[in-house]
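FORM 7B: Structural annotation worksheet

SECTION A. Query
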Amino acid sequence: MAAPSASPGAVESIVPPRLPSGIDTPAMLIDLDVVERNANHLAEELSTRGISLRPHAKTHKSVALAQLQVESGARGITVGNLGEAEVFADGGIDDVFIAYPVWADGPKAARLRALHEKAGLRLSIGFDSIDGARRLAAAVAGTGRALRVLLELDPGNRRTGVLPDDAGDIAHTAEELGLDVVGLFTHGGHAYAGLDAVTGAAADEIRTLEQGREALRAEGIDLEILSAGSTPTALGAAKSPVTEIRAGTYIVGDRQQVVLGAVQPGGVAIWVAATVVSVAVPGQVVLDAGAKTLTKDVAPYLIGHGYLPAYPAAEILRVADYHGMTRIPAGTPAPRLGDVVAIVPNHCCPVIDLRDRFLAVRGGTIVGTWPVDARGRSG
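SECTION B. Predicted structure
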């Protein structure tokens, strides 16, 4: 994994993989050799800085890949909802942070309580309001130990999280409610605006966490964790006083991470294999990977719904459910009818969530079919 310094042209350096023969397309493949390199590299880099890695498992939703990350040095994992937490806890991951302001009402209150009481599980959960804290406290009332919580701060992403000036009062109230406020967390999601936004977003995370820490100190609350999180800002935000990084996409990479400079071209581990099923329209080939495989997620700095490294001039300009309409400029190489091509997806997280399983590959050979364990666990 590289510091954010690559240019959008870096995607042209991605080398197409050697696809195994006989794949039933469309299929998703993940190269375990590349995954292991990515996992080890970031864990080692952060370790040299004295900062923990808590990867976001919503990217892959795979218990096996989460276990690989823990074995590579991660201190635990991050998830995005109760459903993911349940799957990974049942799969043997014993340190889980739900980085989301869960509204613990109705069935969610009972599910949270069950997770909190699960033997051997170290559970932490996010919140960003006093009312949210009240519901968390009520959900675990009478369990005999305090629920570990982290207050979310907004570093400029404008999604969830409070401003540092408001953090002290909210955290103080949460403690009075019986919650154990162990940390603060941010998500530098505004880094995804483009390459020029990455450095500033990382600095915003550091500044926001530092200001929040001082606000809580004024309330007499000492913190264990200051957690920053996004793959583009993973190394830029890995500076004091930050204690933890929650990158997710780094483990498999994707097209936008290469463009943003967060993943080197050789760090792409995820591929979609698709077959050319039609050449009926001049200047176009149609792939059997459409919106139900590649999604419709296209960042403003990308063209098309994925990248074909063997055919760099090709552009997947339109997707229907099962059709990927791919423009082939005149005079450029084109795949033939029946050819199987490799596509780098724009955004790996939703692409993975569309599949029940993936082909685990080493050295161009399929070594297994692995489940996407937490697929569809959206609540």
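SECTION C. Observations
The chain is about 25% helix and 20% strand. The mean pLDDT is 96.

SECTION D. Sign-off
Analyst initials: ____
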